[in-house]
Every structure is written in structure tokens, then in C-alpha cells.
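Exam review. A common question shows you a sequence with its C-alpha cells and asks you to describe the fold in words. Practice with the pair below. Do the first one on your own.
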Amino acid sequence: MNMAIMLAHYEIGRELTRFARAMDDRDWATLKGILTDDATADLGTGMLAGSDAIIALIRQYLDVCGTSQHLLGNLIVEVDGDSATSRAYVSDMHLGPGDAPEPNFRTLGDYHDRWLRIDGCWRLAERRKLNRALIGSMDVFKKERTE
């Protein structure tokens, strides 16, 4: 492993962390800056094309729930020049509105990502989220609730 590969591993890991934190902070501009404009994604609901469509789907869920936390681990990065792939475990938690403990929803999954180095920065070009387990209720994402 040479220094360029080690640096790419670090930079991609940092962008993954920034992406997870941006989702939890509801910082859509940061997500937009990490994704390529023509990025594609399958987050478990079918294929999406374009950064705007990806962000819209993420917002569909996160704009209506309470606090969320996306934790990443076990990162593997493979670099080939100005392109790379990464795999990282994700464990995410979503609380109900107003941070209500119920309903809540969690997943245990695996992000499989493809990256491109554009103007010296690593940008996310493709994401596939493979869910290993779904825990809790999707009701946490309902826009209207009956109390």
C-alpha cells in the first residue's frame, strides 16, 4: 500500500462520515456537495438517478422523524486511480417526532459505494444499501399520526 492509497482511504472515510452526519443534521447542501450530480442509488426502495432524487428520498424519511443517528464501521476501500469502491457497515436509529421513544426504527446494513475523484475531491457516484435487519416500525416515518 502506498501513500496515495492510504490518503484516498482516509479521504473517502471522511466523506462517508460527513455524509452520515449531514443526514443526521439535515444538512442537505452538504449531501449535495458529496454526491455527483448524476449519482445513482438503491437505498431499498428501487433505483434512483441523480443527486436531487437521492436527497429527496432521504428527506422523505428524515424530515418527518425525530433524531436519527447513522453509525458506520468496518470500512474497506479499494482504490484504482481516480475511482474507488468502499463497503461500510451502517447501523442507523430513527426516533419518533419530538424524539419520542416509540415508534422507532433501526436498520443494520451495508453501504456499497462507488467513488470518483473529481478536481482532487472524492465524490459519491453510486450507493447501494443492503439491509441485513430491520427493527421497529416504519410508522416513525409517517407524516400524519393519530395519537
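Now try the second one, then compare your answer with the model answer below.
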Amino acid sequence: MNFEDIYDLLFGKDISWYACLARILLSMIAGAVLGLERKIRQQFVGMRTLILISVASTVLMLLSIYTSGLSENGVRGDPSRIAAQVVSGIGFLGAGTILRQGLNIKGLTSSAIIWVAAALGLTIGSGFIVPALIALFVCEVCLISLEKVEEKYFPAERVKHLNLVFENKRIDLVALNKLIVANGLIISTTDITRILGQKHLNISFTVKVPPSLDIFALTDKIKQIGRLEEFSLTD
């Protein structure tokens, strides 16, 4: 097999069985690369899911190209009709990966990757190989490298409830806020509850928490501000 045969196999308009095989295998590799990145990060969407999406999109694109040339009167059909339905339908599958956990939203990146897998499958199926490979490379670089950038410059991403119960009637709220911020937390809201007739002061914060937070060190520092009775950090 010479270079021209390989070129026609991947980029040509002929969809012989070996051209279909080559594109389906390439689509499987693209889905596996995306799925491997998700599995490394312990996400729900994995290799099998994205391989199935990518390969199925490729098959549907090949079917669109094939059926567009079946007209008996010589008028070619529109090969984009099935592809358009894939683009519309993949949104339902992607929406299923978006979950709300407490104050946080999870699954947005996995949903976007499902969209990417479908797009790569359609692109590879149509023989538009080079843009598909470029898109795959760019997506993988963004998924791997930009996470480190986000962790460095935007470390506090996960939103949690910080609940503190003091035995004091009063504490220095300004000092408490400065202490919390100094430990890398970002305060969004503050709620204070004082139980009349008791010496309990309940302070609740909605905070963004960095992954590197040392909870035990933070607890020890808060104890220096007042008589801390209860400490909880929950979603």
C-alpha cells in the first residue's frame, strides 16, 4: 500500500469497507485518549463510554455519506442530516453527567468531553482527519495542562459550609475573617446565630476551599480566637 492509497483511505470520499474500518479504528483511539484522561481523574465518564460515543458518531457519519449517494434519480441526498441529529441528541447524554452535590456542580467537563467525542467521531467519519487530530491534541493539552494553571491561580474552587460554634457570647469577627482568608479560603456569605439565654454563638460561612487546606491547623488557630466547641466543614 503506497502513500496515495493511505491518503484515499483516510481522506478520500470513497467509503469502502477498509476505509470504514480505518476511520472507525481511528475514532476508537480518539475516544480512548479522551476516556483515559477522565479515568485518571476518577470521573464517572470513562474510556468505554467515550469510545462508544466516538465510534457511533463515526458510523452515523459514514452512514450519512453512504445514504446520500443511494438516490435512484441521480440527485444526491444531504449527508449532514444524520450528523445534525447526532449534534442535537448528544446534548441529552451530556446533560446526564451534570450533577449537583451540595453547593457544587460536577460533571461539566465530562459533559463537554462527551460533546467533543461526538464531534471527533463525526469529523473522522467524514474523512476530515487532520482537523480531528488537531482538535484531539488541543483538547488533551487543555485538559492536562490547564488544570495546573487553575490550581495555581484559582485554587479555591470547591464551595463548602464552614460552621463554627463558640461558647463565647462575643468574639472578634474581624480577626476571625482575616484568619479564615489567610488560610486560603474565600468567604462568600456569613450567618451569625446567637442562642439567647445561652453562651453559644453559631457562625456559618459559605466558603470556597483550596485543595491544600490543612483543617487541623485551621482549627487550632480558630481556638485562639475563642472557646471553640464545634467545627464542621461540609458540602
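Model answer, second protein: The chain has a mean pLDDT of 78. The radius of gyration is 27 Å. Full marks require stating both points clearly.
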